[in-house]
Amino acid sequence: MAYATAIEAHGNGFVAAFVAGMAFGSVVRRDLESLVDFAEESGELLSLIVWLIFGAAMLVPGLKYATWWDLLSAVLALTVVRMVPVALALTRSGLDRFTVGFVGWFGPRGLASVVFGLIAYDTLDPADAGRVLSVVTVTVAMSVLAHGLSAAPLAARYGDFSATLARHQPEHRTTPTMRPRRSLSGHVKTMRNRDA
Predict the structure, then answer these.
(1) CB neighbours of 90 closer than 8 A, spacing ≥ 6?
(2) Considering all CA atoms of the chain, what is the largest pairwise distance in Å, rounded to the nearest integer?
(3) Which of 13, 95, 144, 166 has CB atoms 3.0–4.6 Å from 99's, for a disulfide?
(4) What does the alpha-carbon distance between residue 113 and residue 118 come to, in Å, rounded to a whole number?
C-alpha cells in the first residue's frame, strides 16, 4: 500500500516501502520470526514472477537491439565492476583469495537489476529506455547463464577447498544470528527507567 500510494503521489515507492517496513517493525514486536518467514516465502514467489516477466517480456526485445558495447558492459559488470568492490570490502577479513573470488563471483544477483531496469524503462524517454533495456537484458542474461552453469562445479570445488583450511580460518567461523532490533520507543522507555 505504501509503494502504490507513493507512486500515485509521484514519489519513490521503494523509499515509501522501506519507511513503512521500519514503522511496522517498530510497532509489531512480537512474533517477528513468523513475519520474516512469510516475507521470505512471498519474496521468493515474487522473485520467480519477476524472472518469468524477464524471460517473457524483456529478453527478446533487449537482445534484439543489443550492441557490442552492451556486451562489453555486461562482461565488465559481471567481473571487474562486481568483483573488485567485493575484494576491497573483504581486504582485512582474513579470508583466502579463493573465498574472496568465490564471494565476488556469486555476489549480488540480477533481480534488482531487472526491477530497477523496468523502473528506468518506464520513466525514461524511448531512446534512453531502449539503451537501458539492452544493457540490463544482456547483463542479466549473461549472469543467469554464467552463474547458473558455474554454480554446481564451483560450489563443489569450494567445498573441497574449504575442507582443507585450518579450523581457525575465518571461513570456519559461524555466522551469528541477529536479534530483531528494539524500537526507538522501547529504547527511550529503558533510558527513562534507568534515569528514574
Answers:
(1) 100, 103
(2) 70
(3) 95
(4) 8
Q: CA 131 from chain center: how many Å?
A: 23
Read off the pTM. Answer: 0.68
Tally of CB atoms within 10 A around 62: 24
- Does residue 152 surpass a pLDDT of 90? yes
* Residue 51 cell numbers, joined: 524472472
Report the pLDDT averaged over residues 27-33: 73
Radius of gyration of the chain (CA): 21
Q: How far, CA to CA in Å, does 55 sit from each of 3, 10, 25, 121, 194?
A: 25, 29, 34, 16, 57
Query: Residue written as cell 563443489?
Result: 156
Question: If DSSP codes are grouped into helix, strand and coil, which group holds residue 168?
Answer: coil
The model's pLDDT over 85-110, given as tens digits with 9 standing for 90+, comes to 999 999 988 899 999 999 999 876 66
Domain ranges of the chain: 55-168
Label residue 160 by pLDDT band (50, 70, 90): very high
Report whether 63 contacts 144 (CB < 8 A).
no
Tell me the percentage of the chain whose pLDDT exceeds 90.
29
- Tell me the C-alpha distance between 171 and 97, whole Å: 11
Measured CA to CA, the distance from residue 64 to residue 57 in angstroms comes to 12
Q: Quote the CA–CA distance of 21 and 4 in Å, as a whole number.
A: 14
Q: pLDDT tens across 40-62, in order?
A: 888 889 888 888 888 888 888 88
